[in-house]
Amino acid sequence: MGISTRYASVIVILTLSMSSTVRANKVDVSILEKVYRLDAVKSSGLCPSVLKKVFRATKKDFGCDRVRIDFGYRSKELVQCKLRTDLANKIIQEYNIFIGHCRDEKIK
């Protein structure tokens, strides 16, 4: 059940990024790729060789500041941008918990 939720989150992030009327810049694409890789590592269940936690994504990473200026504070584009950021942070949080478990197992 947890795996399908993670995949659904990644699919929603990718769908929202593609369906948005705002064209994705290189930063948007790179953060999406990073989140996708983190989810793939966690979904594999195998601890990576480098046990490094990842910081949270910000709204600036997804260009929400630019979207707010271009489309306004209450636009659907800004809501989509914030949703992408929130979903990415959920995946990052799950990855960091997974890394914590890997560190605990390595110490044992």
Distance between the termini: 28 Å
Secondary structure class reads: mainly alpha
Largest sheet: none
Give a count of the beta strands, DSSP E runs of length 2 or more: 0
Low-confidence stretches: 18-22
Domain count: the total is 1
Radius of gyration: 15 Å
Number of helices: 4
**Residues in helix, %:** over 70%
Shape: elongated
- Percent range for β-strand residues: under 5%
Mean pLDDT, to the nearest integer, reads 80
Topology as a string of helices (H) and strands (E): HHHH
Report on the architecture of this protein.
This protein has one domain. The longest helix has 32 residues, at 76-107. It is an all-alpha fold and 108 residues long. The protein is 71% helix and 0% strand. Helix 1 packs antiparallel against helix 4 and helix 3 (64-71) runs antiparallel to helix 4. The protein has four helices and no strands. The chain is elongated, with a radius of gyration of 15 Å.
Structural topology:
Layout: H1 2-19, H2 26-44, H3 64-71, H4 76-107
Helix pairs in contact: 1-2, 1-4, 2-4, 3-4
